[in-house]
Amino acid sequence: MLHDSDDPVLLWAADQPGARFWIRPGAMAVACADLCTKDRIAIHGDPAEVAALLCDEVFPDVGATYRPIGREDLVTDVAERVDGLEVAGRFAWMEVTGPVDRKQAGRWLFDDELPAVTAMIDAYFPDSYARPGGSGVHRWAGLHDSDGTLVAAAADAWSTPAVGFLAGVVTHPEMRGQGLAQAVCAYVTNELAAGRTRVALLADYWNVAAVTAYKSLGFDLRPLAAAKVS
Fold this sequence. Notes:
By secondary structure, the protein is of the alpha+beta class. It is about 30% helix and about 35% strand. The longest helix has 16 residues, at about 45-60. The protein starts with 7 loop residues before the first helix and ends with a strand.
């Protein structure tokens, strides 16, 4: 039943290591520890039924540290029905269902090159969910300038057999506006698309430049929200 769903977030969560499932008529939930650095519950279904499922079964099982995530309208409605649950963030799930026809550049990095990625993340993207050596972060691609200095990078992180996941996209500020991040994202996207149904990422609405760049690569946007127990 779960894998018949058309909800990509639910399907992505369902294939994560250690995922736990709850299903009842009108509601589905998948709990994953340490997914994108948070304990999360992907939810899908009728708001009233989902709220009841969370209260009756899911939260008593996993605890209040887990954060429901799903369609923005669903999470907002569920949060209004569950005492102590509040919307904690609104953002975008962006996805493409095949290779992108855009200029791509970069390559997968070797382990001894990852300290340069860490330095870029620390300096220019400290809020990144993906970091070298982090849980669920599989590998990094990078793009170098003519001097061999790393100028853009992106991670394959929290990917599953069906859903490739792109994260940790970072560019040196002096090199922005040249399409470097888009080129390395195209490379990672096309690498991850092979044998999978889609490639996805999470983006903040306020980061208009990033959302625009992903849309120009062919990524479609679905509004998401996350909630937390206050």
